Amino acid sequence: MQSYPTPILTTDRLTLRPLTMDDAPDLFAVFSDPAVVRYWSAEPWISLADAHEAIAHALGAYRDGDEVRFGVELAETGELIGTVNLHHVFPQNRRCEVGYALASRCWGKGYACEALGAALDYAFHELRLNRIEADIDPRNAASSAVLERMGFRKEGYMPERWFVHGEMADTVNYGLLRSYWDARSGN
Ligand SMILES: CC(C)(COP(=O)(O)OP(=O)(O)OC[C@H]1O[C@@H](n2cnc3c(N)ncnc32)[C@H](O)[C@@H]1OP(=O)(O)O)[C@@H](O)C(=O)NCCC(=O)NCCS
Asked: Ligand 1 pocket: which residues have CB below 6 Å?
């Protein structure tokens, strides 16, 4: 089986690194916030046990080497403010999906684009993937803006794909090819 280690990546203001069990309180603070999971088909976390379960899943993924799960830390303070994941890695076809979430108090400061930029660069240039997909709720304007800023293109629309907090929700499919990324980054 191909193995995908989660390395440490650094940007101007952030460190992307593997999660550890010590991250549970910070991670709980992020995912217990209803604003963060507003467009997800999952309820906000209600106890620290939810964080322990998610981190145990991440540790399993590190052990099995089948996905890349970064904790996103503020370089200046060392505080964990969210996660970026490369999951559903499909090595034969050199593609995966991306997911990301940050603490709501940190929104609007360019952190998502900064973290995602590092993770995408790693995916294309170290993992040698060719295509990265995202599936988002069309009402999630912040997430659309992040993807479009990163060069993702809208590729499809799937009505009523998810059940989100009591109602059916649509999906917009986005895709980013390595060729778009390299053209954008001037590589
Ligand atoms: C999506 C999310 C990660 C964005 O984080 P962020 O750090 O605020 O994003 P950035 O500051 O890097 O902003 C990126 C772009 O989005 C735009 N943006 C941010 N919030 C926005 C909003 N509510 N509406 C419209 N555009 C928005 C910014 O203006 C910026 O665009 P620009 O570079 O053209 O100015 C954050 O809102 C979040 O964690 N949401 C909850 C989890 C989630 O929905 N994840 C995605 C589902 S997979």
From this structure: 36, 39, 99-102, 107-113, 136, 140-143, 145-146, 149
pTM over 0.85: yes
How many Cβ atoms are within 10 Å of 178's Cβ, its own excluded?
19
Per-residue pLDDT at 187: 66
pLDDT along the chain (187 residues), means of 10: 82 97 97 97 96 95 88 97 96 96 98 98 96 98 98 98 96 98 84
Distance CA 9, CA 69 (A): 12
- Classified by CATH at the fold level, domain 9-185 comes out as Aminopeptidase (3.40.630)
- Residue of 105, 143, 147, 152 to test ligand 1 pocket, by largest number of atoms within 8 Å of CB: 143
| Residue ranges covered by each domain of the chain | 9-185
Q: Which residue, among 41, 181, 61, has the nearest Cα to 124 in the 3D structure?
A: 181
What is the pLDDT at residue 64? 84
Nearest-CA residue for atom 41 of ligand 1 = 36
Q: What residue's CA is closest to ligand 1, atom 19?
A: 142
Q: How far apart are CA 82 and CA 17, in angstroms?
A: 11
